[in-house]
Each structure stands twice: as structure tokens, then as C-alpha cells.
Design brief:
The protein is mainly α. It is 57% helix and 0% strand. Helix 2 packs antiparallel against helix 3 (57-78) and helix 2 packs parallel to helix 4. It is extended.
């Protein structure tokens, strides 16, 4: 059995994975996520041929919100490709609005986390109450 025919050991796989992680940048992953969200959003909007039966406006809405949140984080890295992704986001938003207008049930808007301060614990009363 030659070295090229054998399966890598667990240690070799772990070392290869660690080398990949070491080279990976967070911005690269954000870009990949934005592109994946746009592609999946288009599919869930039924924009790609053969995906009309996969329509799910809640998924489209989530994809739109995710891209809107992530795109500003990677626009500088995208350089001249940033307008292309912004255009794809606009097309997805227009398709979403059109589907809603056509009567597809629009999902309720996602709940927005409110910045509420937690209630402070009740302060012990200095009033003496019998039995307490």
C-alpha cells in the first residue's frame, strides 16, 4: 500500500483543519455567508427556474435581513463587487414585495429585541412585618 492510497490519520486531519482555520479570515466567512444568503433567498423566493414550489416568504425575509446586517461589514473587502451584491439584495427585496402584493401570505415581522434594562432585584424593606 503506497502513501497516496492510505487514509489520513486523525492527527493529520486535525492538523489540516487547523491550518485552514489559521488561514481563514472572518471577513471571508462573512462574504461567503452574504453570497449564500442571497442565493438561498432567491431560491426561497422562487426566482430560480424549478424552485417555484419552494417559495417561503419567511425564509426570504430572514435572508434579506441577514444580508442587510452583514453586507456593511464586508463591503470594503468586496471592493468593486459590492454594488453587484447590493443589486442582488435589491432584486430580492423587490421579489419579496411583489410576492406579498400577489397575495402570498406575508410573514409577521420578526420580533425586534428591545434594549431593556433588567429590573433590579427588589430591595429589602426596612419595615418590620410580623412573620417575615
Amino acid at each position: 500500500m503506497s502513501d497516496s492510497d492510505r487514509q489520513p490519520t486523525e492527527e493529520e486531519l486535525r492538523a489540516a483543519y487547523e491550518a485552514q482555520l489559521k488561514a481563514l479570515r472572518v471577513e471571508d466567512l462573512v462574504v461567503e455567508t452574504v453570497i449564500s444568503m442571497l442565493n438561498l433567498g432567491a431560491r426561497k423566493a422562487g426566482l430560480q427556474p424549478g424552485t417555484e414550489d419552494e417559495r417561503d416568504l419567511a425564509q426570504v425575509q430572514t435572508a434579506i435581513e441577514a444580508v442587510r446586517a452583514l453586507l456593511p461589514l464586508c463591503e470594503e473587502q468586496l471592493g468593486p463587487d459590492a454594488p453587484k451584491l447590493r443589486g442582488a439584495l435589491s432584486q430580492l427585496q423587490m421579489a419579496y414585495a411583489q410576492r406579498v402584493r400577489e397575495g402570498d401570505p406575508a410573514p409577521p415581522p420578526p420580533p425586534r429585541p428591545e434594549a431593556q434594562e433588567p429590573e433590579p432585584p427588589p430591595r429589602p424593606s426596612r419595615l418590620w412585618v410580623p412573620g417575615q
